[in-house]
Amino acid sequence: MKVGIITLGCDKNTVDSERYLAQLADHSAEYTSELSEAEVIIVNTCGFIDAAKKESIDAMLEAARFKTDGCCQAVVAVGCMIERHKEELFDALPEVDLFLGSSEMQMLVAQLTERGLLGEPTEALHPGVRLYTGDLRHVRYMKISEGCDHGCAFCAIPLMRGKHRSFALDEVVREAQLLELQGARELNLVAQDLAHYGRDRNDGIKLPDLLQALVAETSIPWIRMLYLYSAGITDRLLDVVARESRVLPY
Questions:
Q1: Is the pTM of this model over 0.85?
Q2: 131 in helix, strand or coil?
Q3: Which domains does the chain have, with CATH numbers?
Q4: pLDDT of 72-89, one tens digit each?
Q5: Strands (E), the chain
Q6: Residues 6+ apart with CB under 8 A from 168
Q7: Are 49 and 81 in contact, with CB atoms under 8 Å apart?
Q8: What pLDDT is stored for residue 12 in this prediction?
C-alpha cells in the first residue's frame, strides 16, 4: 500500500506525521509524495484558528478528489481539529473515511488493517521511530512533551492535546540518537512549553537535565529550544545554555 500525507499546522504536527508514517511502514506501507499515487491519504489537521480550520477542511476535500482522479481508497483525517470537532466533521464530510483525534492515534494501524489496507508487520526499514519525508534531513524537530496546563483564554490547545505530559528522559535521548542516525545535525526541541518539562514527573528531572543528557549522549552539533515561556526560565537553565556551546541561545 502506498500512503501520502498532508501535514498542516505547527512543527509538532510534523513530528506526529513522521511517527504515523513509521508505524505504517512497519506494516508494509510505502510513503509517496505524489498524492495521485497514494491508496491512503492522511490529512494531519490544525484547529488552532479559523483560517487553519478552513485550510484543514480544504485539504480533506482535496484529498478526497484523488478517489476519482487517482488511486485513493481511503482518506484519513487526524490531528487537533479532529480531536475537537470530530462529530461535526463526521456529519459534514462524508468524503472522509476515517476520523481519528490526537488521543486516538494508537488505533491507526488497527483501523487500516481492519479495512484491508495494511499488510502484516515487517522488519522496519527505517533507522528509528520516525520516517522522514522532507528535504532537509539534517534539520529535525523533536517533541519532549505533549499537551499544556496553561489556561490562556485565547488558546484551545488543552482542549485538543490535553494536560501536559513530559516524555521520559531516556525515551527522548533514544529518539535523539535515532534522529542522529538518520542524519540530524540540528535538533529543534518543541513542546507547548519546553520550560514546563518534568514538572509532572516524580523523578526530579527538568529541562536543564534533559539538555545535559542530549549533549552527553549524542554528537548532534546544534540543539535548539523552541516554544519556551519566559516565566519558566531558571538560573540553572541559563547556566546550561551558557556553558554548553552545542545548546544554542534561545
A1: yes
A2: coil
A3: 2-114 (3.40.50.12160), 139-243 (3.30.750.210)
A4: 999 999 999 999 999 999
A5: 2-7, 30-31, 40-45, 74-79, 98-101, 139-143, 145-146, 165-166, 186-190, 222-225
A6: 201
A7: no
A8: 92
